[in-house]
Amino acid sequence: MTNQMRLFASASLLAVAALGATPALAADIATDAGTTISNTASVAYSVASVPQSAVNSNTASFLVDRKINLLVAASDAVTTTVAPGQTGVVTTFTVHNLSNQTLDFALTASQPSGGSAPNGGTDNFDVTSVLIYADTNTNGQYDSGTDQQITYLDEVTEDASRTVFVVASVPGSQVTSDIAVMYLKATAREGSGASSQGAAITETSGANTAGVDTVFADTTAGPADSTRQGDHSASDDYTVAAAALTVTKSSTIISDPINNTSNPKMIPGAVVEYCVKVANGGGATATNVVITDTLPSDTTFNAGSIIVDGDSSCANGSAGGSESGGVVTAPLSNIASSATRSARFRVTVR
């Protein structure tokens, strides 16, 4: 390769590198819409080899037009795990103003009817009581009572991001692995300069004008918007993890007043032990589990006989629970998925 060829190749590589770096800097160096850019040219010349005074051109000026662009994104690529009947479940989004002007952004939360969920699985239910909140204290986490409910973002400056929370409730009928997909769409509006949502924005049609024209530059669509409409959307999802409890009750004869513990029979005066097993076949831990059992009228509770937190064989456990007015109450510790806990107590047949 000749020296000239080497120089040409090096220059070409530098030019490509420079071109490749330009998009990454575009957001930081975008000129404000409405900025007037002006410059003049100067011509130097000579007459009979004598330099003459330079001649300046007129000033050429133009206005920078407005480029409307934005990006909505889910805060992470992880589903929000929820329980049936849970309220205040949260998905988190960011709205980024990629325009060259301060703007308002109208916000809309919506849900699809079926289809693939962004974090895997298929949408098969809708959450309810959907509201949108701003991250008022800018800590990145939803704080009930602090973060303010909104329908739009006010005065988002160029290249700035805002955090937005979609907060909802889960119907109590949902079961493990049910999935609800949530869309958040932001639509650019005029920056009103006050605490009110600005007017809708229309893209300039036809040729370039002398004034500030508007160009929609949102060329990549999200799940709930189209390209070049001055809006963008993103999706996140909720996945239900529910406990599914199965309760089984059985009785065992312990003794009777005639045979004692040798082949006892269910005769008046017999002592019978009840066992209540609680098995969790769901995908979430069951908490605050309490067994309540109203005794048959033909039996009398045996004081001090309640044993709680037994195993799947109704063995082991510890003393606990209470009885009042013929009703036995036996609290159990948390029951994890695929686990079983039990309680047992004794009565005497009248």
Describe the model.
With 350 residues, the chain is mainly beta. The protein folds into three domains: 3-63, no CATH class; 66-240, Immunoglobulins (Immunoglobulin-like, Sandwich), CATH 2.60.40; 245-349, Immunoglobulin-like (Sandwich). The protein contains one helix and 26 strands. The strands form eight sheets. Strands 18, 19, 21, 22, 23 and 26 form a six-stranded antiparallel sheet that branches. Strands 9-17-15-11-13 form a five-stranded mixed sheet, with no helix packed on it. Strand 24 and strand 25 form a beta hairpin. The longest helix has 27 residues, at 3-29. It is rod-shaped, with a radius of gyration of 36 Å. The termini are far apart.
Secondary structure elements and their pairing?
Elements: H1 3-29, E1 36-39, E2 42-43, E3 46-47, E4 50-51, E5 55-56, E6 60-63, E7 66-68, E8 70-74, E9 80-82, E10 89-97, E11 103-110, E12 128-134, E13 152-156, E14 161-169, E15 179-190, E16 214-216, E17 231-240, E18 245-255, E19 271-280, E20 289-294, E21 299-301, E22 307-310, E23 318-319, E24 322-324, E25 327-332, E26 340-349
Parallel strand pairs: 7-16, 9-17
Antiparallel strand pairs: 1-6, 2-5, 3-4, 8-10, 10-14, 11-13, 11-15, 12-14, 15-17, 18-19, 19-26, 20-25, 21-26, 22-23, 22-26, 24-25
Query: In CATH, what is the homologous superfamily of the largest domain?
Result: Immunoglobulins
General form: rod-shaped
**CATH architectural grouping of the largest domain:** Sandwich
Largest sheet: 6 strands, antiparallel
Percent of residues in β-strands: 35-45%
| CATH topology (level 3) name of the largest domain | Immunoglobulin-like
The CATH C-level name of the largest domain is Mainly Beta
Low-confidence stretches: 1-27
Number of domains: 3
N-to-C CA distance: 110 Å
What does the radius of gyration come to? 36 Å
Q: Which oligomerization state do the chains in this entry correspond to?
A: single chain
Per DSSP E runs of 2 or more residues, the count of β-strands stands at 26
Structural class: mainly beta
- Kindly report the average pLDDT value: 92
Helical content, roughly?
Answer: under 10%
What's the order of the H and E elements? HEEEEEEEEEEEEEEEEEEEEEEEEEE
Provide a count of the helices: 1
